[in-house]
Write a structure and sequence with these properties.
GO cellular component, one term: photosystem II oxygen evolving complex
Number of strands: 15
CATH architecture of the domain at 113-243 and 273-334: Beta Barrel
Order of helices and strands: HEHEHHHEEEEEEEEEEHEEEH
Structural class: alpha+beta
CATH topology of the domain at 113-243 and 273-334: Porin
Strand order of the largest sheet: 3-6-7-11-12-13-14-15
Protein name: 33 kDa subunit of oxygen evolving system of photosystem II
CATH class of the domain at 113-243 and 273-334: Mainly Beta
Subcellular location: Plastid, Chloroplast thylakoid membrane
CATH superfamily of the domain at 113-243 and 273-334: Photosystem II, cytochrome c-550 precursor
Main location: plastid
Shape: elongated
Helix content: 25-40%
InterPro entries: OMP/PagP_B-barrel, PsbO
Amino acid sequence: MATSLKATTATFLQPAKIATSSPSRNVHLRSNQTVGKSFGLESSPARLTCSIHSDFKDFVGKCSDAAKIAGFALATSALVVSGASAEGAPKRLTYDEIQSKTYMEVKGTGTANQCPTIDGGSETFSFKPGKYTGKKFCFEPTSFTVKADSVSKNAPPDFQNTKLMTRLTYTLDEIEGPFEVSSDGSVKFKEEDGIDYAAVTVQLPGGERVPFLFTVKQLEASGKPDNFSGKFLVPSYRGSSFLDPKGRGGSTGYDNAVALPAGGRGDEEELSKENVKNTAASVGEITLKITKSKPETGEVIGVFESLQPSDTDLGAKVPKDVKIQGVCATELLSSTGAQRHICGDNLCSHYLATATLVFLCCLLLLASALVNLWSLPSLLY
């Protein structure tokens, strides 16, 4: 019995080995000495060898490399997509291309906030002398800079780049007025009507927000086509009926909202600015340059730069100078006849073909009715 138990115990304590062609990892398991001594036997180490085949290791390594490559490709794709979506404004379209699009095709794309461009045309102003009417005059700002104190020390005030805080509703459009081309090549434009103002708010690098009313009201500009300028009216950002948080206004509300200050304090002027609301208009200047024209359709495009004051909070603050740069476009219609159909060349051709087809259908219906009337007496008798 003892001999059999000893042989059995020795069998369990023999080294066990799971072998492969190229062992790479060895795990040593030692038998419990207490168990061996309990049976009166010397403890001998048992060894268990486990290995992973080299082919399997290569496969795992290749899978790991493939996963890294896939992750890198995915990250690169994300960067490309984000860069493509952050490219900025959409492609600028011509007038006919804009008119051919539906509301849903334009909605949310930013196209409605853009001035049209010209396909072809001349790089110079090629209109003959005469009197024209400027229709659909469009001013699209592309840059807003505000003159303010520099962020760095000991630096003079300068025009600083800003961040737009309002939505894409700052373009002026549908402006019209007489446009005259003189025999010496000079031009003259006078603004009379249209969407000629837009409330805009921008933010300076320091965090200060500057509201202003982008406008070209009552603009009268004259000069050469490559550089004609003029002045315009800048109305108050707030109207006379606007009430401040304390109920004070220009034409309504309280006259003042503070007690009478003691004499000699020196702040009577500041309090007066807050109490007495000032809605007087200011004056701005603009310079325009025509860069391209197409006399056969009456289209003209160019660039502009305007300088105007910002909001004064109804006279309580000192206005800042706001410089606005952008592109402009218009359609010049001759006083003797329109240079261009309002609907556009392609659309007018389509409408004309449709009208012709409808007219022919009406003629066929009329002929059919006449034939029926002619055969009616024979049917009665």
